[in-house]
Structure formats: structure tokens, C-alpha cells
């Protein structure tokens, strides 16, 4: 194949130990039709030394100040050349050595390829909630699609302008949510464990839930003001056991929002 199939991009700042773990899991993949990009935010620890240890396996890297994680992710996107992009940031790592081989073999030509996410806790590794089939708006209301387990077409990232650098935690959630609902992009769910997410990172910070809730609320109010009351209602249902009702309502909303195609 002449075309680069995957661009694996790692964002790092002052996390040398996590970076080593991430790089090692990338360079040990059995599938080799990919490029590897590292965007370091002018780390003051030994991160650059770690990068230099693996420089023969790294396609492109840079170490300079940035304006936050999503600015760094956009920088990686702008130098990427693969058909699909996966952001595997420092501390996170592939579930096994055959992940890319499995995805390349089983993937179809969709805009997003979404696999399973594993979560690293103090008590061990657990599988995150799998996305529902079909994917619903209610899922986005209450959860997310993990970017560490999602391969996104580079053309789609560029078409939709990359990640919103004004958000601290939820820009990846916003991107795929709007891509599917407003822009009618396609997705494929694969029953493959893609990566292990380090819960001790930014999204695991003590105030993360408050930031996530505020950012999601702002996005919903901005893009879906007429549906925001539905979000409030569905949010109240989350502790109830009426799964059939919840899924029916959320699926109806998802179909309606896609049909209306707000732009």
C-alpha cells in the first residue's frame, strides 16, 4: 500500500514515564503501515530523552510550547498524512500488539472506526461502557466516545476544522457529536479492545466532572437550544431503570436531529 493507513499521534507534557509506555506500545505493533507523530509541550522532565531513544521509529516530533492539549492535537493533525488518525496520548497504550492489524483488516470505509476502551484504575483494568447500537443522542448526553479508541478520517478532521481549542476537556466529545449529528458522518463499531486509558490524567482530575458538565451544557445550549430541555429531562432519568423508555426517546431524538440537519 502506498497510502499511509494510520497516523498515530501522541500528545505529551512532562510525563516521561507515561510517554515511554505509550511509545513502546506503538512501536511494537505488528502492523507497520502507519506513521508516528509526537507533539511535546516543551517538557522540562526527561520526555525529550525518551523520544530520542525511539527517534528511528518516530516519523515526526516537536517539542515547543503550546496552548493546551487540543491545540497540540490540532498541531499533530496538521502534519499527519494517514487515512485515519488515532490520538494515543502519553500514559495511554494499545491493548495489545495486534490492534492496528485487527482494525486495518476489519474496517470499512467509514468516517469513524470506534473500538472498545479499557480503563486503568488502582484496582486494575476494566472495560469502559460499550457504545450502543445504534448510537444514540442519550449516549452523548450521559457519556462520550473515547478518542483513544476512535480512528477518525483525517479528511473529516480537516473538513470540520479539528478540535475546539477553547474547551479544556470535552473538545473530542464535541467534535464527534457534531460530526455525527450535524454533518451526518458515518461510523463503524468494532468489537476490538483498542487502548488502555490512564485515569490519572487530565480527565481524572478532581474538578474534571464539573468542567465536563459545564462544557457539555454550553455546547448543547449553543448548537441545540430547542433540544436542551430534553437533555434536562433525560438527565433526570439516568438513575431510573426505565431503559426501554430512555432508549426509545433517545433514539427518536437522534433520528430527528439527523433528519433536521441543523447547520
TrEMBL record:
Keywords, in A-Z order: Transferase
Pfam family, one: Glycos_transf_2
Annotated protein name in UniProt: Glycosyl transferase
Ranges for domain Glycosyltransferase 2-like: 7-118
Gene Ontology terms for molecular function: hexosyltransferase activity
Transferase keyword on record: yes
The keyword Hydrolase appears for this protein: no
Domain of life: Bacteria
